[in-house]
Write a structure and sequence with these properties.
Blueprint (H helix, E strand, L loop, with lengths): L6 E8 L3 H9 L1 H7 L3 E6 L2 E2 L11 E5 L9 E8 L4 E5 L5 E9 L2 E9 L5 H28 L17
Antiparallel strand pairs: 1-8, 2-3, 2-4, 4-5, 5-6, 6-7, 7-8
Helix pairs in contact: 1-2
């Protein structure tokens, strides 16, 4: 962990092929299997289908379980190579980069979230909050891809739990 609050890196090993892990990040259906209640991706004005891979320049709107549908996040896909690299805007419209590769005969999913360190108090809040969220969701990704168990809270009325 860095001491300047400008980025964090998280890695998880997953017993799944790289292409399956990539599809979990780069398709609306994949994102909905472990991360989101709803992932709407559009290429211009054209919506992507549940199994279509996102492309650079696509826009998205994300909604989560545990929150009302009025709570969403919009952003853009910055990079998508169709194989192992996926980057999108997230908190403060700054990048989250996902790299998927093999190490020690395992598939590694590595996430790097970057922050603008000009407002240290805001950055600390986002840094700690986002890291907590990403840790849970990376564990859930592992769980879903390895055995199908989805750990997310699906009850909007159940508040202040790690699983939402």
């Amino acid at each position: 962990m860095s001491n300047h609050w400008s980025e964090f890196k998280l890695r998880v090993n997953i017993n799944a092929p790289i292409d399956k892990a990539y599809a979990a990040w780069a398709t609306p259906g994949g994102l909905e299997s472990w991360f989101l209640k709803r992932a709407d991706l559009t290429a211009g004005a054209t919506p992507r289908q549940r199994g279509d891979q996102a492309q650079k320049g696509d826009e998205y709107e994300f909604r989560w379980f545990g929150y009302p549908d009025t709570t969403s996040h919009k952003g853009k896909v910055i990079a998508a190579d169709g194989k192992s690299q996926f980057t999108f805007t997230f908190s403060q419209e700054l990048p989250v980069s996902v790299s998927i590769y093999r190490e020690c005969e395992e598939t590694i999913v590595e996430l790097v979230e970057t922050f603008d360190p000009t407002d240290e108090e805001v950055v600390r809040k986002h840094y700690l909050g986002n890291m907590k969220g990403w840790i849970f969701y990376l564990v859930n990704l592992k769980s879903v891809l390895e055995g199908g168990l989805d750990l997310r809270n699906r009850k909007e009325e159940l508040k202040n739990v790690l699983t939402a």
